[in-house]
């Protein structure tokens, strides 16, 4: 994947997220209006409200992970809110220790790395994301790590050698994003911990 492909993919990701967030927000506003108008708050409404909240959180996460980065900064509160809303009800606990604000392209790479770690932690676990200066570390741990060695090897390659399933696209995109930023992803895979650095 070259720089032009990566940039085009990021623009497509941004466009899709932008176009989806408005109707999701409108549904959420409609639910709030129905609740304020005295509508019954039964299990059906609670399910819709929960689903809309989860969809909105995933879109915000995907916008940072797959969207165009630009020169913007992402504040700690925004990053933590996106992670909390996306992973709060999951089996993964996410820690974020990256200072008050970080360049969006660094946050993008961290979120792509998180998606990679998520594939190796199907039974849950913990992911700690830290940044010190320009150095980032993502540390995933869990009792049952299940990394696919062939897929994880893609993070070290210049060009992916195989067509990936859509659920694994982060393994092709992360190295391309790292190269564009003049960085390299390094991985260390142990029995109960995976560490990604860039």
Structural features, described:
This protein has 198 residues and is α+β, with helices and mostly antiparallel strands. α1 runs antiparallel to α2, α2 packs across α3 (76-87) and α2 (43-66) crosses α4. It has helices spanning 3-36, 43-66, 76-87, 104-120, 149-153, 170-180; strands at residues 73-75, 92-97, 101-103, 125-132, 135-141, 186-189, 193-197. The protein has a single domain, classed as Heat Shock Protein 90 (2-Layer Sandwich), CATH 3.30.565. A five-stranded mixed beta sheet has the order 2-4-5-7-6. It has a two-stranded antiparallel ribbon with strand order 1-3. It is globular. It has six helices and seven strands, in the order ααβαββαββααββ.
């Amino acid at each position: 994947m070259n720089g032009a492909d990566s940039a085009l993919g990021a623009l497509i990701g941004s466009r899709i997220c932008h176009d989806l967030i408005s109707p999701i927000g409108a549904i959420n506003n409609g639910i709030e209006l129905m609740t304020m108008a005295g509508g019954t708050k039964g299990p059906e409404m609670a399910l819709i409200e929960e689903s809309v909240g989860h969809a909105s959180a995933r879109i915000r996460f995907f916008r940072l992970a797959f969207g165009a980065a630009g020169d913007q900064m992402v504040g700690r509160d925004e990053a933590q809110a996106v992670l909390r809303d996306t992973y709060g009800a999951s089996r993964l606990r996410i820690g974020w220790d990256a200072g008050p604000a970080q360049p969006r392209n660094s946050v993008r790479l961290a979120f792509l790395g998180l998606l990679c770690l998520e594939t190796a932690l199907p039974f849950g676990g913990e992911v700690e994301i830290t940044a010190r200066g320009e150095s980032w570390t993502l540390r995933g741990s869990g009792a049952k790590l299940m990394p696919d060695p062939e897929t994880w090897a893609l993070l070290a390659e210049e060009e992916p050698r195989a067509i990936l399933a859509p659920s694994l696209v982060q393994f092709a995109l992360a190295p391309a994003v790292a190269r564009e930023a003049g960085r390299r992803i390094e991985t260390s895979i142990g029995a109960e911990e995976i560490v990604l650095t860039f």
